[in-house]
Design goal:
By secondary structure, this protein is an alpha/beta fold. The protein has 11 helices and 9 strands. The protein is about 40% helix and about 20% strand.
Length: about 280
C-alpha cells in the first residue's frame, strides 16, 4: 500500500497509509500499531481498495477519509467544501486566547465566522470558549449543512446560528453587532492558482480559494462591509497570504474608524493573518 502511494507520487505515503487504515479500523493513527495482527474481512479489503483507488486518482486525503482534525477536534469533510489548513490553526489559537480574555469581562460574546465553510473556525471557538454565541455565515448551502452537522458532532449546536448570505448582505447592523469577526476568506490570485497542486485545483471549490486579481477582493469587502457590524472596540481576525499584509494595512489606513493592531504568523513563521480593531 505504501509502495503504491509512493509510486503514484504521494508525498507522505506512510503517513497517508496510516490515516486510511486507522479510519477503516476506527482507531487513532497513534494506536494503529496495536492492530498489527488484526484479522480483516472482505468488506474491509473492499473499502480499503476503494479508498486507495480514490486517493490515487488525486482526490485529497481529507475527502477520502471524510473527516479531519482541526485544533484537536474531529470534523466531517466532504467534496465541494473547502479543506481547512494547518496554517489556519495558528491564528485561530490566538483568537481563542483573545476570546477567553474578553469572556472575563462579558457574560456572552457575539462572534461571526464569515465564510465558515465546514465550520472549523467558529465551532472551535465555541468549543474552547463556552461564553460565545457564534454566527456562521456562508454563501454555500452545502457548506452550511456540513457546518451544522459538525456543530452537532462537537456538541456546540446550541451556541451556533447558521446564516446563508453573500458576506454581510443578509445581516443587519441594526439587529446584530459582533465583538469579534473571524474569517479565512478566498485570497488566492489567478497567477498563484496555476501553481497549486492538481488535487486542489481539481477537487476543492474555486470560489473558496480565488480572491480576485490581487487576491484581496473578498478581504476588502469583509473589512468595508463589516465595520458597521463590529461593536466599538471590536476586532477582525482575517487570514491572508503573507504578501498581502501591506495591501491590507493600506486598506485599514483609509478607514478612520479602524486601526491595524498586528499580524499573526503561522507555524512556519510566515505572516498568516491580520488583527484589525474598530476604534472606540
Amino acid at each position: 500500500m505504501v509502495n503504491t502511494l509512493h509510486t503514484k507520487g504521494i508525498t507522505s505515503p506512510m503517513r497517508e497509509a496510516r490515516f486510511i487504515l486507522a479510519q477503516l479500523l476506527c482507531v487513532s493513527p497513534s494506536r494503529l500499531c496495536l492492530f498489527w495482527d488484526h484479522e480483516v474481512n472482505q468488506a474491509f479489503l473492499t473499502s480499503l481498495t476503494n479508498m486507495l483507488e480514490e486517493r490515487l486518482r488525486g482526490v485529497p486525503l481529507q475527502y477520502v477519509l471524510g473527516e479531519w482534525e482541526f485544533l484537536s477536534l474531529p470534523f466531517w469533510m466532504e467534496k465541494g467544501v473547502f479543506i481547512p489548513r494547518f496554517d489556519t490553526e495558528a491564528w485561530v489559537e490566538e483568537a481563542i486566547v483573545f476570546l477567553r480574555f474578553l469572556a472575563q469581562r462579558q457574560q456572552i460574546l457575539t462572534v461571526c465566522d464569515m465564510g465558515c465553510g465546514s465550520g472549523v473556525i467558529g465551532i472551535s471557538c465555541a468549543f474552547w470558549v463556552r461564553e460565545t454565541r457564534v454566527y456562521s455565515v456562508d454563501i454555500s448551502l452545502q457548506a452550511l449543512a456540513l457546518a451544522e452537522k459538525n456543530a452537532r458532532q462537537i456538541g456546540v449546536a446550541d451556541q451556533m446560528i447558521f446564516i446563508h448570505s453573500d458576506l454581510f448582505q443578509a445581516l443587519s447592523p441594526a439587529d446584530l453587532r459582533f465583538d469579534v469577526i473571524l474569517s479565512n476568506p478566498p485570497y488566492v490570485t489567478p497567477e498563484d492558482w496555476d501553481t497549486l497542486s492538481a488535487e486542489i485545483r481539481n477537487y476543492e471549490p474555486r470560489e473558496a480559494l480565488l480572491g480576485g486579481e490581487e487576491g484581496v477582493d473578498v478581504i476588502q469587502r469583509i473589512i468595508e462591509e463589516g465595520v458597521p457590524f463590529l461593536k466599538e472596540g471590536g476586532t477582525f481576525f482575517i487570514e491572508h497570504d503573507p504578501r498581502q499584509k501591506e495591501t491590507i494595512q493600506a486598506m485599514v489606513a483609509r478607514k478612520p474608524a479602524l486601526e491595524y493592531v498586528r499580524h499573526i504568523e503561522d507555524y512556519q513563521g510566515r505572516v498568516r493573518a491580520s488583527v484589525i480593531r474598530k476604534k472606540g
